[in-house]
């Protein structure tokens, strides 16, 4: 009998899910996203409300993660709860976060704590937020305070989530608060966010010399539609540079120079300000030259014809399912940073209400991650977005990224088949043929090759 093929992951590999405070906790009434919702500016007009009710009962979902034998969980702290007014600290909020972190540790799960995940206290936003360089000090003060209070329960920190998304959707496309449309303001905010990361890194390092401190960026691959078209290649490269690589260049301590003498100066002490790189990856777009789209650097974005697609969203589409993209992004980040730090996949997932495509998508993305590790990349963990369906920012309740389905009206939970599959992968620290056979036999050829696919009875595509 043929031996079962296995993609084994390194010992100590972190398996977990990722989440954010505003999307899960409920009752966050004091940040700029709450105000955005109250103004009816989400695409659905919906509000987060009690969200997934984590402020009251997060532990029941931690239990689900424990049942999946996750050994890590990424969550964030809500700044507006801990510092509801400038300079006033809410001890009861801090105690709630202490209880959550202690609960994770009791379950033998490593907490990865995000210190800023898209939300700002209203008092901070009303002072100009991250658009003003002088406001960075308020965030750094918050970081010093919470790390000082929680360092006995956590040593794995993520300073700022997706500064490129926060800057460009909030200040360039206007899809996120404050709804501005200015390239110069977006670039200023991006630089200030990266400066905030650098300063926060050194503030945490003072408290916790042994801590693991990093940030994460969202990487959306942007490939030319026609590779032989110089115009498609140029606009794809422009969009790719602007969205994916400006923040990383700043994080590496390099200046960013644009035509017409527009420049983002290098950030002092940035080059050494990380212990790891966080990679968030979901999808890719093809880009074609379009002279009518000056605001998008003259490039029209769309999925590959015939590609498997996530469920559509209110804003259009969440994108195609492109597993090779995770491998490509990990390679690009590793190469552009000279391979000087470990990598964590701090988010990956897809919008899939019926769980039709998620099992295969997870397996094929993890196979690509395994390929990167096999080729020498120091990838140390994978955090799936997300554990339980949550309030998906501008999309409201219309997106379904959870391994566990949530009814926001009744708060009823129902684990999807992909939750069981993810649990088996975590327990084995591996992808096995038996796991593939049970959950996505059609993926066997992609993961193990045609011989394994034939043995599992899957149709091999040629």
List the helices and strands and how they pair.
Elements: E1 6-8, E2 14-18, H1 21-24, H2 32-38, H3 54-67, E3 72-76, H4 79-82, H5 91-106, E4 110-114, H6 122-125, H7 136-150, E5 156-161, H8 163-171, H9 183-207, E6 212-224, H10 230-251, E7 256-257, E8 263-264, E9 276-289, E10 299-302, E11 312-313, E12 316-317, H11 324-336, E13 343-348, H12 358-374, E14 379-385, E15 404-407, E16 412-415, H13 417-428, E17 430-432, H14 433-439, H15 444-448, H16 450-456
Parallel strand pairs: 2-3, 2-14, 3-4, 4-5, 5-6, 6-9, 9-13, 13-14
Antiparallel strand pairs: 1-17, 7-8, 9-10, 11-12, 15-16
Helix pairs in contact: 3-5, 7-9, 8-9, 8-10, 11-12
List keywords for this structure.
462 residues; alpha/beta; 8-stranded parallel barrel; globular; disordered C terminus
Provide mean pLDDT, rounded. 95
Supply the helix-strand structural class: alpha/beta
Q: Compute the gyration radius: what is it?
A: 21 Å
Number of extended strands: 17
| Largest beta-sheet characterization | 8 strands, parallel, barrel
Helix content: 25-40%
Principal-axis shape equals globular
Contiguous runs where pLDDT drops below 50 for at least 5 residues: 458-462
Distance between termini? 26 Å
The helix count comes to 16
Q: Kindly estimate the percentage of residues that lie in beta strands according to DSSP.
A: 15-25%
Strand line-up across the major sheet: 2-3-4-5-6-9-13-14
Could you characterize the architecture of this molecule?
Strands 2-3-4-5-6-9-13-14 form an 8-stranded parallel barrel, surrounded by 6 helices. The longest helix has 25 residues. It is α/β, with parallel strands linked by helices and 462 residues long. It is globular, with a radius of gyration of 21 Å.
